Amino acid sequence: MRITASAVSLNVDDVLASSEFLQKHFGFREVMSADGFVSLTRDDAGMNVIYLRRGLATLPADFRDVGAAGILVAFDVEDLPAEEARLRAEGAPITHELTVEPWGERFLQVTDPNGVIVQLVDWVTTT
User: What is the Cα–Cα distance from 125 to 106, expressed in whole angstroms?
Assistant: First the structure.
């Protein structure tokens, strides 16, 4: 097997709201869309983020109405403090303040209009 691309698909109530949020605050761009569906990418992300409107027949019937609220999508970034300042200036809803874990992971979280958590991470040296 050779993997040529990766994506995460998230069921949400409002596809447009999540799509606009990822484009506005994280620089993703739309590569494909249809009714109840949008695929977003960034050249440096290594994966596409796909939003599907809940209820579509793309999943087994017992999962179609399960929403992605509480799902965490993480991006490793450079200069997290600068990203935090940028997000604050844009008015993004920071729902977990910048935190440094004992093992050196530094992160903050924002939450999109459908409850999907976007976590930005960088690493600090622990000594």
Answer: 10
Q: In Å, what is the CA distance from 90 to each residue of 63, 84, 93?
A: 34, 10, 9
State whether residue 53 is helix, strand or coil. Answer: strand
Residue 55 backbone dihedrals phi, psi, to 5 degrees: 100, -10
**Hey, what domains does the chain have and what are their CATH numbers?**
7-123 (3.10.180.10)
The single-letter code of the amino acid at 118 is: V
Higher pLDDT, 77 or 70: 77
In 3D, which of 38, 34, 36 has the Cα closest to residue 8?
A: 38
d(CA 85, CA 102): 23
Residues whose CB is less than 8 angstroms from the CB of residue 77 and which lie 6 or more positions away in sequence, other chains included: 83, 120, 121, 122
Q: How many residues belong to the chain?
A: 127
Do the beta carbons of residue 48 and residue 41 sit within 8 Å? yes
Using a pLDDT cut of 70, give the percent of the chain over it.
98
The stretches of 1-127 forming alpha helices (DSSP H) are 15-26, 80-90
What is the mean pLDDT of the segment spanning 33-59? 92
